[in-house]
Fold these 3 entries.
Entry 1:
Amino acid sequence: MIYLHKQLHFFIANNFITNHMPQSLETLNSRFGLTNTLFFANHAAGLPVAEIQTPLARAHVALHGAHVLAWQPAGQQPVIWVSQAARYEPGQAVRGGVPVCWPWFGARDGLPAHGFVRTRLWHMRETSLDADGQVRLRLGISDDASTRALWNHAFDLELIVTVGQTLTMALVTRNTGTQAFTLTDALHTYFGVADIAQTTVRGLEGCTYLDKVQNFAECSQTGVVSFSAETDRVYVNTSAECVIDDRAGQRQIHVAKQGSTSTVVWNPWSEREKSIADMAAGEHRRMLCVETCNAGPDKITLAAQGIHTLTARISVA
Ligand code: TA6
C-alpha cells in the first residue's frame, strides 16, 4: 500500500514537472537539441527560442506561446512577419509571427483577448529530424489552477510544427476532463508582403463574412479580397485554401487548412495602426494576417476525452 502510494506520488510529481515547471536552456539543449539543426537560445527577456536551420528552411519557435516567430524556406524572403516594435515579455503577446488563439478567438469581457495560451510558457515535448529533412517540434500546455481560474476545464493542448519547404502547424486540443466544452481557436498567422496595396487574397470569393469594421455586419465577398482601408473580417463556413498574391513581392503564398471552417483576414491600415502600441508607423504596408480559425459562429464542441486538430499548411510559389 505504502509502495503504491509512493509510486502514485512519484507519477503525479513527475507529470507535474513535465507539464508545468519551466525548462532550463541546458535541459532544452540536452534533451531536444539536434546537432547542426536545432538549438535553443535565450532571446529578449530571457525567453527560450528553438532556432532551426536546415538545407530546406530556417525557423524560430518560442516556448512563450508556442509562437512561431520566423519561417524562411530556402531561396525565399522571410514569409512570416514580426513587428519591429514587438514586445517579448512574459504575459505579453508578440505582435507578429503565429499567435495561438485558444480557447477563444477575439475579445471576451474581462478576460484576455484571444485566450490565454499565447501569453504563457509552453513545454517542449519532442523534436525530431525526419528522413526527408523536415524538423518536427511538439510543444504542449495543459490546465493548472491559473488556467482553470480563467476557463474551468481540463485540457491538454499541443502544437506540432513541421519546418521544411512547407510550414505545417497542427494545433491539437484534447478534452482531458469529464464534461464537454466548446471552444474557438486560431493560428493567427502574420505574413510579410512587399506592398499591401498590391496584394490580394484568393479563395474566399462568394463567402459570407462578418465585418468587424462595420460592427459585425454580415456581408458577401465579391471577387478576390483587396486592401485599401482597415480590413477585419471573419469569413465563416469556409474550408477553402487561400492564396495571397503578393504582386510587388512577386510571389504567392498558399494557406491550406484542415479542421477549420473560418478564415480571418486582417490589416489594421494607417489609422488603427496608430492605436497599436507594439506596431511601428507604416508597418501595416508590409503585413497581412490570413488566419486559420474556427471563429464567430463556427465553434468546436469536444466531448469528454475528445480530440480536435486545427491544421495550417503554408507554402510559397
Ligand atoms: O484577427 C483579427 C483581430 O481579432 C483584430 O480584430 C485585431 O484586433 C487583431 O486580431 C489583433 O489582436 P491583438 O489582441 O493581438 O491586438
Entry 2:
Amino acid sequence: MIGKLNHVAIAVPDLQQGTAIYRDTLGARVSQPQALPEHGVTVVFVELPNTKIELLEALGEKSPIAAFIEKNPAGGIHHVCYEVDDIMAARDRMIANGARVLGDGEPKTGAHGKPVLFLHPKDFCGTLVELEQV
Ligand code: CO
C-alpha cells in the first residue's frame, strides 16, 4: 500500500548549521526555513534527485523535537515518510492491523500542505513513520 519514500527527517540542534552541512559540505539544494507551529518544528527540505531530506529544529515550548535532541545532542534520524494515495484508507488499515496512530488519529496538514499522520515507532520496527497523502 505505501508508495514512494517521500523524505527522511533528521532532527538537528541548529537548523542553520544543518543547512550549511547539506548545502556547503554535501553540495545539495536546501529550501528556505519554514515554521510549522502546529507541529512544533521549523523545517528545511534538502532536494535530492530521488527523494528529500527534511531537517527539523525544535520550535516552541512543547516541541516533539526537544526531547529527541536531549537524548541525541548531535541530532539523528527522526522519522521516515512514505506516500499513500488515500490517507483515511491507510489509517483504517493501520488500526485494523493493531497499529497505533499518534495524536487524535485525524490527519494534520504537513510541511507540503498535504494531509499527514504519524504512526507509533513501537509498531514499526522502532521507527517513527509519517504517512503523507500525495
Ligand atoms: Co516529515
Entry 3:
Amino acid sequence: MSQPTDTKCLIIGSGPAGYTAAIYAARANLCPIVIEGPQPGGQLTTTSEVENFPGYPEGVSGNQLMADLRAQAVRVGADVRAGLVSAVDFSSQPFAVTVNGSDTITAATIIIATGASAKYLGLADEQRYQGLGVSACAVCDGFFYRGRTVAVVGGGDSACEEALYLAGLAKKVYLIVRKDYLRASQVMQQRVQQNEKIEILFNTNTEGLFGDEYVEGAHLVSHRGSSDEHRFDIAIDGFFLAIGHQPNVKLFTPAINVDEQGYIVTYNGTTATNVAGVFAAGDVADPRYRQAISAAGMGCRAALDAEKYLATLD
Ligand code: NDP
C-alpha cells in the first residue's frame, strides 16, 4: 500500500519537540506525518547520558530517550518516516513539502522542529573525539567531569555560563578566548573573573586535541600571527564548545520570520509563526532555554496550536 501524501499535520524534525508534537497531534486525530531529517532523534543522540529529563530516575542514554519518544509517537499513531525535506512551499494552502528531492506531501498545518546545531571550530579532532571528551553542552555532559580539568571555548555569555556551570563540578576550567576581551555581559564577566577555578586564556586559539582514546589535552596558540605568537599544550579531560548555536532555518527563510540571531519568531505567546498554519517548536525557535524538556513542552504546545487552528478552519 502506498504511503499517504496528504496530512492535517506535517512535523519536520525528530528531536524532543518533533516527537512530542507527534504524540499530541496523533492523539488529537491529526494523523501526523513526521519527517525525521538528517539526524533522527536530534542533538540528544550525540550526548551520552541524560539525567535531567523527568521520568528517568536512573538517567537514560540520549539514544534510548529518543528511541522511547519515537516508539511512543508511533504507538499512538504517528507516521514517522526517514527522509530529508528539501523544499517547502508555504505560499498557498495546503502547504507543499518536498521530501528526498522528489516526493511531495501536502499538509494543512506544519510544525517546524528542526532544532539548532552547535557551532564547532571546524577542527578534525572535534569529530574524532566527539563523545570522547568533546561536547557542546555543559549542562548535558558536565557531570562526567566532576573533579577533573576542562576547557571551554568562547567569550560570550554562553561560554561564561558554561564555564561557571562547569566550575561547580570540575577541579579547574580553562576559558579559551580568541580576543583580548570577553564579549559577555559585565555581570557574567565579573563572575568568571572572580571564580578561582576559572583561568582565562585571552588571545588564544585551539589548533588541535590529543589523547589515546579520550581527550587528554589541547594544542593551543597564543597571539596567532603576531611577533608574540607561541604554541603550548594544556592537559584537559573535556573540551566544551560555546561559540554559539545556529538554528536550522535555511529551508524556511525568507517565508518564515526569524530574529537577528536566526531563530524563528513566534507570536502572542504561542508557537504560531508569521504564516498562519505554520508553527515552530524547540531549539529552532528558542534562543534561551535549549533544553530537551523545554523543547518537548514547546512541541506539545505546537500540536495544540495546530489543532486549534484547524478547528477555526472548520
Ligand atoms: P555570542 O555570539 O555572543 O558569542 C560567541 C563567542 O564565541 C564570542 O566570544 C566569539 O568570539 C566566540 N567565537 C565565535 N566563533 C569562534 C571561533 N571560531 N573560535 C573561537 N571563538 C569563537 O554567542 P553566545 O552563544 O555566547 O550568545 C548568543 C546570545 O545569547 C547573546 O546575545 C548572548 O548575550 C545571549 N545569551 C545570554 C545569556 C544570559 O543572559 N544568561 C546566556 C547565554 C547566551 P568573538 O567575541 O571574538 O567574536
